[in-house]
Design goal:
Layout lengths: L1 E3 L11 H12 L3 E4 L8 H4 L14 E4 L4 E3 L6 H21 L8 E8 L31 E8 L7 E5 L3 H8 L10 H7 L9 H15 L1 H6 L3 E5 L4 E5 L5 E5 L3 E8 L11 H9 L6
Parallel strand pairs: 1-2
Antiparallel strand pairs: 2-9, 3-4, 3-5, 5-11, 6-9, 6-11, 7-8, 7-10
The structure holds succinic acid and fe (iii) ion (FE).
């Protein structure tokens, strides 16, 4: 479930054999885990370790590495922007060194800072990340691209980030297959027209979202499915493709996360993508 590496610097290099093992592990649904890779904050940045940095109604702060725009924050954003830009650069450098196969093809997504304690947080069922799920976006169709995320626990008082890891993607799909329904005729046009989705929702995005929702909504699935508790200690980093790895975050506070997207054809083995797995099980093409 975990592929553990001992790096303690974001600028480490990796041997070709290790790079090969890492890409295979990642594409097979493992979490690449760096127990000793921490992200250091300056004294000024440590002042940001409080939920008070959040703007009203936000549960995390998001940063666009291309424009340096910070969203969801209250007050001065300069320090946040410096911190998040540095985290983005570190995450990007780490992936370039570890998985050079992806380097030219990775698409930069948002950086996120999550300063709220997860345990006990009130949310709606579908937004409740303490329940096992695969990541899928209701508003932003992604047409099969892989979701690759780098997480670092920056908790200052030694609190771990505790996750559940569930069953392999193929098992999830097989379990929910009998309940997966085609989209209603015209619904995807309507969602786009009403600007509920930012672009036309592909069949791939439809089924991924359905899986996400059905997993989260099913009490019996959540109770019965095989899962493992994994604790990511303060000062550790992990890399995971969250569109295929069933996961839940049970507790923890103060996390940095960087999202990247990867076109399926740029994987080492595209057959392991959720797109190809869904297409095989549903026996149809999903990108129209
Ligand atoms: C998630 O991606 O579901 C939540 C991850 C986290 O906040 O630890
Ligand atoms: Fe998630």
């Amino acid at each position: 479930m975990l592929y553990t590496l001992t790096s303690s610097s974001w600028a480490d290099s990796f041997s070709p054999a290790l790079q090969e093992n890492a890409i295979v592990a990642l594409e097979n649904g493992k979490v690449i885990y760096f127990p000793r890779l921490s992200f250091q904050l300056t004294a000024a940045e440590k002042e940001l370790l409080t939920p008070r940095v959040l703007g009203e109604g936000s549960k995390n702060i998001s940063f666009n590495p291309k424009t340096h725009k910070v969203r969801g924050a209250y007050g001065d954003k300069t320090c946040l922007s410096t911190l998040m830009a540095r985290f983005f650069e570190n995450a990007q450098g780490l992936l370039a060194a570890l998985i050079p196969h992806y380097e030219k093809f990775l698409i930069t997504g948002r950086t996120s800072y999550r300063p709220i304690e997860i345990a006990g947080r009130k949310t709606s069922l579908l937004k409740d990340d303490t329940r096992l799920h695969v990541d899928a976006f209701p508003a932003t169709p992604n047409y099969g691209k892989r979701i690759l995320r780098v997480f670092t626990n920056i908790n200052p008082s030694g609190e771990a980030r505790v996750w559940h890891l569930g069953e392999p993607f193929e098992e999830v799909v097989k379990k929910f297959f009998p309940t997966l329904r085609k989209p209603w005729l015209g619904i995807r046009e309507l969602l786009f027209l009403l600007k509920i989705t930012k672009s036309y929702r592909s069949l791939y995005d439809h089924y991924m979202l359905m899986l996400h929702d059905k997993m989260k909504k099913s009490d019996s699935y959540q109770d019965k499915v095989n899962k493992t508790v994994v604790e990511f200690p303060a000062g550790s980093t992990w890399v995971v493709m969250t569109d295929a790895v069933s996961h839940a975050a049970l507790s923890g506070q103060f996390l940095l996360e960087q999202t990247f997207y990867l076109p399926v054809m740029n994987m080492k083995n595209p057959e392991f993508s959720p797109l190809k797995i869904l297409e095989r099980v549903l026996n149809q093409k999903l990108l129209d």
